[in-house]
Write a structure and sequence with these properties.
The chain is an all-alpha fold. 65% of the residues lie in helices and 0% in strands. The protein starts with 11 loop residues before the first helix and ends with a helix. This is Zinc finger DksA/TraR C4-type domain-containing protein.
Amino acid sequence: MFMYNSGMALAEQQIKELEKALMEKREELEKLLASERAGLDFGDSIDSGDEESDESEAHGNYLALEQVFKARIGRIEDALHRIQEGIYGICSACGTAIPFEFLKENPESEQCLACRQKK
């Protein structure tokens, strides 16, 4: 467990702004995923081999996209949970405050830039 190091902790208004951005991004990704899912056409009609191949490729592309989107949604959910726990904006590796400007660009990040670069 880390100890919280001093630094510029996020103000309540900054946390609210980031929380709103996280919720909007989650909703956007969920809508995009639903739209992609709805766009898949696996009709019951007998298709030519080319059409079946196209459908199979589209399904494969959807599955890859779904995996990426669900991973991102999971990171967003984790960030929202950290907000509720009161630990959002604190690096999970070193305990320093993560700068607001960095979180504006990477709102689901749980580590500061220095710790992310160590990976």
